[in-house]
Design brief:
- Strands 4-3-2-1-5 form a 5-stranded antiparallel β-sheet.
- By secondary structure, the protein is α+β, with helices and mostly antiparallel strands.
- It contains 5 helices and 5 strands; from the N terminus they run E-E-E-E-E-H-H-H-H-H.
């Protein structure tokens, strides 16, 4: 169970801060059931209420600072996703995002970046699906890393890219 003040990942809402744990204070709602009240860190003017036993949406603690630092040192070892059927590409992207797993999000970012580079080299435009899921993966991953590493979300992208450049250096050696 999470406690007031904890930062958690809550599905597609990303990083949220728990502000209350207890029964809902709304008439008609059972006082026997406990709910988390949380505020998404990167969605303005929003509040979420969910039962503490909700199993339909991924809920997990954000990485600790040590876990985030270890994770960052491993990003160069994370492989791209394997998209077998082109027709199911967007579904694969969606399923990757729904896992809320940082390593899967990195794989997704690498996969989409490779595709963007290939399409650009061929004189083709970036697809709306690629752009959409790239942005979602970045927002979710960088949001968690910002909280874990006590950084501004905008600074995480540059920090992350330095670790990816380490990978490119390894490949050219």
């Amino acid at each position: 169970m999470f406690e007031v003040g904890d930062y958690i990942i809550y599905g597609s809402s990303g990083v949220c801060k728990i502000t209350n744990v207890g029964p809902m204070k709304i008439s008609g709602v059972s006082k026997d059931k406990l709910y988390y009240t949380m505020i998404p860190c990167y969605i303005r003017d929003s509040e979420i209420f969910t039962p503490i036993d909700n199993e339909r949406v991924v809920m997990r603690r954000v990485m600790s600072k040590d876990e985030a630092e270890d994770f960052m040192s491993s990003v160069s070892d994370i492989d791209e996703l394997e998209i077998i059927e082109e027709k199911k590409r967007e579904l694969e992207y969606k399923q990757a995002v729904l896992t809320c797993k940082p390593e899967v999000l990195v794989g997704l970012l690498k996969t989409i970046q490779t595709r963007i580079d290939e399409r650009t080299a061929e004189g083709k435009k970036v697809t709306s699906s690629d752009a959409k899921y790239f942005r979602i993966a970045e927002d979710n991953l960088f949001g968690e890393l910002a909280i874990s590493l006590d950084m501004e979300k905008d600074d995480v992208k540059e920090y992350f890219e330095r670790f990816l450049q380490t990978e490119e250096t390894k490949l050219s050696d």
